[in-house]
TrEMBL record:
This is Spermidine/putrescine ABC transporter ATP-binding protein. Residues 13-238 form the ABC transporter domain. GO terms for biological process: response to antibiotic; transmembrane transport. It comes from Rhodococcus oxybenzonivorans. Pfam families: ABC_tran. One of its GO terms (molecular function) is ATP binding. SMART domains: AAA. It is found in: Cell membrane. The lineage of its organism: Bacteria, Bacillati, Actinomycetota, Actinomycetes, Mycobacteriales.
Amino acid sequence: MTTRRTLTDQPCLQLKGLVKRFGDITAVDGLDLQLGQAQVLALLGPNGAGKTTTIEMCEGFLEPDEGEISILGLDPTMDGERLRARIGVMLQGGGGYPGARAGEMLRVVAACAADPIDPDWLIRTLGLPDVVRTPYKRLSGGQQQRLSLACAIVGRPELVFLDEPTAGLDPQARHVVWELIHSLRRDGVSVVLTTHLMAEAEALADEVVILDRGRVVAAGPPKDLVRCGAEHQLRFTAVPGLDLGSLQEVLAGTHRVAETAPGAYLVDGLLSPQLIVTVTGWCARMNVLMTEFQVEQRSLEEYFLDLTGRELSYR
Ligand SMILES: Nc1ncnc2c1ncn2[C@@H]1O[C@H](COP(=O)(O)OP(=O)(O)OP(=O)(O)O)[C@@H](O)[C@H]1O
């Protein structure tokens, strides 16, 4: 899609001690974040967690009360003009010109860029050919979303901010957007996105930051977050009434073992390849045939619930 950028070690986004208050509400409360080049960062959190406020400060639309922001080495408040040519912004809820036709809108944005992506290619890729002549205000919510995404990336930005890029999209359109974000990353573009969707963060992000009430409650690669927050459960079925005492002995008390229903067994505790070998090896020695074998991990969603006592996604 684009010419691949040369990778550097410089963080393209760095936030230190960021604070933003609206009257009595502290929307962002001492946030530290860093993002490397060609990385995707997902800000995850419930309504009001401070995601939009954070990215609006990064985009230069809001001024922080405290802290420092460096975007591509620039201060978005002081260097907004210089920065705007190098970043792409997709606002929550679209943000297009109501009377402008979809195709024209994208071409106007492309014309402002030195080396734009071909607008026709973006229109085809995002499934918008049938609405190029339709005014923005008459596009469906999903079409407005996709057009806004096209406008955010048509100028080949170095860093893109996408505020809930797939909100309201059907699964097929969501998949197209995910593919586009993957290809941006492959081309060396860094992406900051906000989402309520755990699956989206897991599918796209190198780094997930979970916010709650303006603070980071957890951060890391999605797999690590699931792993570090999770006790795991291994379940298997076999003939009822197995002698679980001997399995417990083999496991040396590290896991809880139970027959939860006749023939349904649960091994509860931290999961590892060694645990699977131990349990299947024990079955083999006891001449027990497992008829089902299942590993259950807690999702990021459940991890968030554990951390905050609240649900993460409720749209
Ligand atoms: N302009 C504003 N004036 C007053 N309060 C605001 C303003 N913008 C945001 N807030 C408040 O700051 C807090 C954080 O809001 P923000 O929009 O950043 O959350 P969010 O995580 O993006 O939520 P959502 O997922 O609903 O978009 C909320 O309590 C919100 O009501």
